[in-house]
Every structure is written in structure tokens, then in C-alpha cells.
Design brief:
This protein is mainly alpha-helical. It folds into two domains: 21-387, no CATH class; 390-538, no CATH class. The chain is built from 24 helices and seven strands. It has helices at residues 2-36, 46-60, 73-82, 90-107, 109-116, 122-133, 136-142, 148-163, 167-183, 187-201, 209-233, 239-246, 273-288, 296-306, 310-330, 344-359, 365-387, 390-406, 419-424, 429-436, 439-442, 469-474, 493-500, 530-538; strands spanning 257-260, 266-269, 409-411, 459-461, 482-486, 508-513, 523-528. A hairpin with a 5-residue loop joins strand 1 (257-260) and strand 2.
């Protein structure tokens, strides 16, 4: 009796020590995230869309009637936060959005720790939680203020609940799957994976339709009101419409079709979309596995497939289903690695099994685990600082402010020009809210891009697809006030020529050169003299 009590006390103390260690990992990772977080950097692109939609929800006290989006979850949460705080500056709410994203990303290690514990002992689960906590790309993404961290939190928690041998947890998991789908449409594929696994689990038993119907109903109770609302207000934009409409995209052959990619480049493709998707998926998958998963995750997949169980099979199936939207995104191709961030919980789970097998070869296992934790943290931090150059962004921000103050219509110079839009918004929160209180604004929706119908004084025109400075100016009806040329390699040839040989363009008057201000990032701003331009064209 006394021996059993002593064993229980040891187990309790050991568990407490492990939980303290998990909290320590969380605290260190959160501290590191806040250390690399730069409050002077504004939110960008997708984050602006989420901000704008959140303001509309905040102002109206409900979802806007004149437009909607298929993934309102993150904006709904932000709208709730906006109603709590009372800042005077727009930038303060932008930073609130980013800090919330950072915090959500950091706390994901807790459900992930318990999810890892489904497959390995707690001491190895800490290794998994640490790998996630210090994944450099997730750290960087968490500072953007986008929906990915919230989705990954719900994704991880949903999988954890689903794998619990509990009827109550099963119901809650389908509830969370519905919420996940409101955050990002990828959640629907999580639901499909869970439905498939339930059928697989009970394949040898009498089909229990009421049981399946009950969990599926929970999912659709969450999702259907928003889907129906979306279809009613903006047909063809709900998560169901997008899934159905895009399914045939994989096998379409685009005959020299050109489109603007996510980084504002003109892309031409003639490949079957599915082949393009496979090529880009493979390329970016290899990239995101670096540095910490490139060896462990592939070995873990092999081990999972060799020693199959329901829980191991579940992770493999969920990973496959969650990968489908990434295949679709890369079939365009969209050249962003964020579509693979949802696979990071799977990377962690696959990785911990080979790590466990490695540690088991040593007698002093705790010491080896401690060394592994230290290596993960140190190598991840070093990789982060190597991969992400904050100085270039800081210079780009200063240059963007100068461009905004001294020009009206320019060419884009992505990605550095992406900062201009944020600074072009009303800087006083009350002024921005007033814009959102204008009902006419929401009626001017362009291509379902919320950010496009925000007020802006400054306009940017994509220079890709043009053959010369003259054609760029003429085909845009002489709208430009200035042209921007810089030292980056991914620019159209005529802009590279302008940067290197400015004397060839007498109608372009150089007004500013970043080198004169001591910047490492070299940018030149040219004002167009249309009198001289007209004379040049008449020659």
C-alpha cells in the first residue's frame, strides 16, 4: 500500500515537473516571438483584409450585408477584441491584431503536447512541443496578424479531441472542425478526413447511421448559417461553392494563360494544373521541412506506415486530406509556403517517433533529451535570424513612407511596395471607423477584395507584361506621377535598364536616391515630365 502511494507521488511529481517544463518552453518561445516582433512594421495584404472586415463587424454589430468572405472566423475574433480596447491610433489596433496572433501561435504548444502524448511518453512530447514552438517559419508567420495561427490552434485541438476515446470529445471535435472551417476553408478537408476515419473505424460493425448523423449535424450547425448567408449576399463565395467550383481546376490545361501571381508577377503556364500543383507542392514541402523536419519527418512517416494503428493511420489520413488545398493553391501556381503551415502539427508528430528511437539507445535519456531541446532552440533561433532580414523591411518601410509623401501614382515594386497600402489608410482610428460607417463603401466591392475598396490617396500599377517605359505610361493613359526603379533582380527588363541607365530617359527626372540617404536598399524615384515625354514620343 505504502509502495503504491510512493509510486503515485513520484508519478504526480514527475508529471508536474514535465508540465512546468512545457510552460517554460512556452514562456521562452513567447519571449522570443515578442523580441523579434517589430511594432513599427504595419500589417500587410491578407491582414489588411481581415482588419477591414473586422472593423465592419465591429461597426455594424454583426456581419455586413453588402459583402462577405468565406472565412470570417479570425475577423469575428478581432471585432470582439476591438470592442474591448479604446485606442486613438489605427496602428494600435494593427499591433493588437499582430500580438493576438503571436499569443495564439505560442499557446498551440499545449494541445500539441497532449497530442504528441497520444503517440509517445510525455518526456518525448516536450520535444515535439519545442519543435513546434521554435519552428522559424511559424514564428515569422505569427507576427503578420493573419488567420493561420488561429486555424492551426483549432486544427491541433480538433485532432486531439478526435483521437480521444470519448463520445463527448468526438462531438466537440466536430464542433471545432466547424469553427476551423470558418477560420479557413481547409477546415472542411479536416472534416472530410474525420468522417472517412469514423467509417473506417467501424467498418466491421453494423453501420450506425444515427451516430454519424449526430456528429455531422454538429459540424453543419456551425457552418451552414454562414455558408447560406454568404451565398445569399455574395453568390459563389461560400466555402462549399469554392470547393465545388475548383475541383475541375486540377485537370484543366491552360493554353498559354497568363495571370498575376500572389507576388504581383505575370505568370504564363500551359501545363495541366494537377502536374503544376505536384511540382510546386514537392518543391515547397522540401523547403518548409528545413531545418528541423527534413530528416525526422520522412523517417517518421515510414515508421508510422510500418507499424500501423488507428491513431497512426488517422494522422496519415488527416495529413493527406489537409494537403489537398495546398495542391490546389500550387496548381495556379501560388508561390507562397503558408499553405503548408497547416501540416506542421503532422511534421511534429511524425518526427517524435524517430527521435524517441534515437534517445532510447542511450542510458541517460534525460540528458540526451535536454541536449536535443537545446539544439532545437539554438539552431531554430540561428536559422530565424539567418533567414529573415528585418533590416531590409525597416528600410523598405522608410522608403515607402517617402514614396507616399511625394508621389500619387507609381508602378508597384513588390514585395517592398506592399508597405504603402497600410500607411495610406487613415491613421486616426475614428477616421477609419467613419469610412466603415459609410454604407456606400461596401457597395463598391471590386473582385471581392475588401482592401480594394478602402480609401486610398495613392495608386500603384503593376508594370509586368509591358515591354518599355513608354508602353507602360501610354497604355495606362499617362496616369503615372512617378516611376520607381530599384536594384532587385525580379523587375521587368525596362525597369532594370532605367535603374542602370537613367540618362537614356531625359523625360524622367530623378527626384530621390536612397543611396544619398545611406540606405543599403537602393531605390530611385523619377518624376515624369510629360512635356518632354510627349516630345520623345513624337520623334
Amino acid at each position: 500500500m505504502k509502495m503504491n502511494l510512493m509510486q503515485k507521488n513520484r508519478t504526480f511529481l514527475s508529471t508536474n515537473k514535465l508540465l512546468i517544463l512545457v510552460f517554460a518552453v512556452w514562456a521562452i518561445s513567447l519571449s522570443f516571438r515578442m523580441n523579434v516582433y517589430d511594432p513599427t512594421v504595419p500589417i500587410l495584404m491578407d491582414s489588411l483584409n481581415f482588419l477591414s472586415y473586422a472593423i465592419d463587424i465591429h461597426v455594424l454589430g454583426g456581419l455586413p450585408e453588402n459583402y462577405t468572405v468565406a472565412k470570417p472566423g479570425w475577423s469575428i475574433l478581432l471585432a470582439g477584441l476591438f470592442s474591448i480596447f479604446d485606442f486613438s491610433e489605427t496602428s494600435s489596433y494593427m499591433q493588437l491584431q499582430r500580438i493576438t496572433s503571436i499569443f495564439i501561435s505560442s499557446i498551440t504548444i499545449f494541445p500539441l503536447y497532449f497530442l504528441c502524448n497520444v503517440f509517445v511518453e510525455k518526456k518525448y512530447s516536450i520535444v515535439g512541443a519545442t519543435m513546434f514552438a521554435f519552428a522559424p517559419r511559424l514564428i515569422e508567420n505569427s507576427t503578420y496578424g493573419t488567420a493561420e495561427p488561429l486555424f492551426i490552434l483549432f486544427l491541433t485541438t480538433t485532432i486531439l479531441l478526435f483521437l480521444k476515446n470519448s463520445k463527448k470529445c468526438l462531438y466537440i471535435s466536430f464542433l471545432f472542425a466547424g469553427i476551423s472551417t470558418l477560420i479557413r476553408p481547409e477546415g472542411f478537408f479536416l472534416f472530410l478526413a474525420m468522417s472517412f476515419l469514423l467509417i473506417f473505424k467501424f467498418k466491421n460493425e453494423k453501420f450506425k447511421f444515427p451516430k454519424y448523423l449526430s456528429v455531422i449535424t454538429i459540424f453543419f450547425i456551425v457552418l451552414l448559417p454562414f455558408a447560406l448567408y454568404t451565398e445569399d449576399t455574395n453568390p459563389g463565395t461560400s466555402v462549399f461553392s469554392r470547393i465545388i467550383g475548383s475541383s475541375a481546376q486540377y485537370f484543366q490545361t491552360s493554353d498559354e494563360e497568363s495571370y498575376v501571381s500572389s507576388d504581383n508577377r505575370l505568370v504564363t503556364t500551359s501545363k495541366i494544373s494537377a502536374i503544376t500543383g505536384i511540382e510546386h507542392f514537392t518543391k515547397y514541402l522540401g523547403w518548409v521541412l528545413i531545418p528541423m523536419f527534413i530528416i525526422t519527418a520522412p523517417i517518421g512517416v515510414i515508421l508510422f506506415l510500418k507499424n500501423r494503428s488507428y491513431t497512426k493511420t488517422s494522422i496519415v489520413v488527416i495529413t493527406i486530406f489537409i494537403s489537398i488545398p495546398a495542391f490546389y493553391a500550387y496548381s495556379f501556381p501560388l508561390e507562397e509556403i503558408k499553405y503548408l503551415f497547416f501540416l506542421f502539427p503532422s511534421f511534429v508528430i511524425f518526427s517524435i517517433l524517430p527521435i524517441k528511437l534515437f534517445v532510447e539507445k542511450f542510458q541517460k535519456k534525460n540528458i540526451v533529451i535536454s541536449i536535443i531541446l537545446a539544439v532545437i532552440i539554438i539552431s531554430s533561433i540561428l536559422f530565424y535570424y539567418y533567414q529573415f532580414d528585418g533590416e531590409h523591411d525597416r528600410e523598405s518601410i522608410l522608403i515607402a513612407k517617402h514614396v507616399l509623401d511625394n508621389t500619387t501614382v507609381i508602378n508597384t515594386y513588390y514585395p517592398e511596395s506592399r508597405f504603402i497600402k497600410s500607411f495610406d489608410l487613415p491613421q486616426k482610428w475614428s477616421d477609419l471607423v467613419s469610412v466603415h460607417q459609410n454604407a456606400e463603401r461596401t457597395k463598391k466591392l471590386v473582385d471581392n477584395a475588401i482592401v480594394k475598396h478602402l480609401p486610398q490617396k495613392h495608386w500603384r500599377i503593376n508594370p509586368d507584361g509591358f515591354e518599355s517605359v513608354e508602353s507602360l505610361i501610354l497604355e495606362n493613359d499617362k496616369q503615372f506621377s512617378h516611376l520607381i526603379a530599384d536594384s532587385m533582380d525580379n523587375r521587368p527588363e525596362f525597369l532594370k535598364d532605367l535603374f542602370e541607365n537613367e540618362d537614356r530617359y531625359p523625360y524622367l527626372i530623378k527626384e530621390w536616391d536612397s543611396k544619398d540617404e545611406g540606405f543599403a536598399y537602393h531605390v530611385k524615384i523619377f518624376k515624369i515630365d510629360y512635356n518632354l515625354f510627349n516630345l520623345e514620343i513624337e520623334k
